[in-house]
Design a protein that fits this description.
Helix 6 (177-190) packs parallel to helix 7, helix 12 runs antiparallel to helix 13 and helix 13 (375-384) packs parallel to helix 15 (412-424). The protein has 474 residues and is of the alpha+beta class. It has helices at residues 3-9, 25-30, 33-49, 100-129, 145-148, 177-190, 207-215, 225-234, 274-300, 312-319, 325-336, 340-360, 375-384, 393-401, 412-424, 433-441, 443-446, 448-456; strands spanning 13-16, 22-24, 56-58, 65-72, 75-82, 136-139, 156-159, 165-171, 193-198, 219-222, 238-243, 254-257. The protein binds zinc ion (ZN).
Length: 474
């Protein structure tokens, strides 16, 4: 029986012109006779009509191939064979001197992977070019000399006219973090949209793939058989998009075209921004509990809302993040004869007054009876000037300084009161449980890591963006 030996020495995958695409030897051998005979005939017709444009090519050497019918046990079995003008150096060369072991070794030395890479690039370029919007395309080269000199060539470059210019990187093996960042920055500067395309997502996913998905805001793009079939059917490039579900997995894949993607957000292209939404949820999560508790408390206990029991679940939610709060609460009671929970609720109301005034461009105050224009400054002067909140002068000034209401921090009356508070009271610092609690309540303003990520993603909320603020407020 020759079949086993032939399988190792024959061409394992032939790439047919689209829309047929890749046909592995196993698929060919499993076809009914009339199907492979049709393929065989079409290949031979093409060979006669256009000898230099093969209908099917060897995956490894790209030489033209035909279908040889091998007589086996009174029947015929189809195999691929190179046309005589194919390169004799192909590891799959059937007439060559390679032993089956050599051929197998060649496969595992990456030949097959680089051939798959090349074939994917060719298919992706071909389906993109079928789109009438495509003005220019290139594989492994760039059309603009300015970029040539810097030595960075995208796998596929597409100029899609009004849709924009795209660099597609087909990544079969693990990409390296510095290269990912360098490419994003490079293409951002050039005004070219970079999209990383994978063949599949392995489990467990190597970090390099995670890095790309992070850069693409929780989107993974795949070009597989489904995407190829959809591309051929729609006459444009279609890719499969997997969106993070926020629980360590992905939502049901969606087949999308380039015009479905968001390309206006600087250095990354995505279908849906999955990361900013999660970050925004994190920012609001604990604060919302406090805000709801405060609204409830105002109804239940209008005269002294901060002492309302409705703060209990909100307190528990922040204490879960800052366990030191429990010991601080006991110590606060012992030294101040006041409830720590009520104290934190009052501080929350002070900071909410700043945040909401900044968001609305008009003064809203949730503690003290000040109202109208100037209410926020009057409240801050009053609170920072009080013994209970003088220890938070630094914190309140820092908070104010990273909001849209930052100009208020420059006001002479507040500056004077802050100076006085610093002279008369030890200031609460970043390792204090209350400071940590406030960081968890307002991460957009006070959590450096969260704030930097929001800035990178251009998602900093308006209230927490001093550069968006008026010169003075209130
Ligand atoms: Zn070959």
């Amino acid at each position: 029986m020759r079949r086993g030996t032939d399988l190792q020495r024959t061409i394992r995958i032939a790439d047919f012109e689209l829309p047929r695409g890749a046909v592995p030897i196993e698929t060919l051998m499993a076809m009914p006779r009339e199907s492979w005979e049709h393929l065989r005939t079409q290949i031979n017709i093409r060979r006669q009509e256009a000898p230099n444009t093969a209908l099917a090519r060897c995956r490894l050497c790209e030489g033209g191939v035909f279908i040889r019918a091998q007589a086996v046990d009174g029947d015929h079995v189809p195999f691929y064979a190179h046309f005589p003008d194919s390169p004799p150096t192909c590891p799959w060369y059937d007439g060559g001197t390679l032993t089956p072991d050599d051929a197998r070794a060649a496969q595992y030395q990456g030949n097959q992977e680089s051939a798959l890479h090349r074939q994917l690039c060719q298919v992706i370029e071909a389906v993109a070019k079928a789109d009438p919007r495509c003005k220019a395309s290139a594989i492994d080269t760039y059309l603009r000399p300015a970029i040539h000199t810097r030595g960075r060539f995208p796998d596929i470059f597409l100029d899609m006219g009004d849709l924009g210019r795209f660099a597609l990187e087909v990544q079969l093996s693990k990409p390296f973090a510095p290269e990912i960042a360098a490419r994003h920055l490079h293409y951002e500067r050039e005004g070219v949209r970079l999209i990383w395309i994978f063949r599949r997502l392995d489990e467990p996913l190597p970090q390099g793939f995670h890095d790309v998905i992070t850069m693409q805001r929780g989107n993974a793009f795949i070009f597989d058989d489904d995407a190829q079939a959809a591309s051929v059917a729609r006459g444009t490039l279609v890719i499969k998009c997997l969106l993070e579900d926020g629980k360590g997995s992905y939502l049901k894949p969606r087949l999308v075209g380039l015009d479905d993607l968001q390309t206006s957000s600087g250095r990354s292209v995505f279908l849906e921004d999955r990361r900013s939404e999660r970050l925004a949820t994190y920012c609001r999560e604990v604060r919302n509990r406090w805000w709801k508790a405060f609204q409830q408390a105002q109804r239940d206990k209008p005269a002294s809302p901060f002492y309302s029991e409705s703060f209990a679940p909100a307190w528990a939610s922040v204490r879960a993040h800052v366990p030191d709060l429990s010991a601080w609460k006991d110590a606060y009671w012992a030294t101040h004869a006041d409830k720590g929970q009520a104290h934190l609720a009052s501080l929350f109301a002070i900071l909410c007054s700043i945040a909401h005034s900044a968001a609305q461009d008009s003064d809203v105050v949730y503690i003290t009876r000040h109202s109208g224009d100037g209410a926020l400054l009057a409240m801050l002067n009053s609170k920072v000037g009080s013994a209970a909140f003088a220890p938070y002068a630094d914190m309140i000034l820092q908070f104010l300084g990273v909001t849209r209401a930052a100009a208020l921090g420059e006001r002479a009356s507040l500056q004077k009161i802050v100076r006085n508070a610093r002279e008369t009271h030890d200031q609460v610092t970043i390792d204090h449980p209350v400071w940590k609690a406030v960081v968890r309540l307002f991460p957009e303003a006070l959590d450096g890591v969260v704030r930097a990520e929001l800035i990178d993603l251009a998602q900093l909320p308006r209230w927490a963006d001093p550069s968006s603020g008026p010169q003075s407020l209130g």
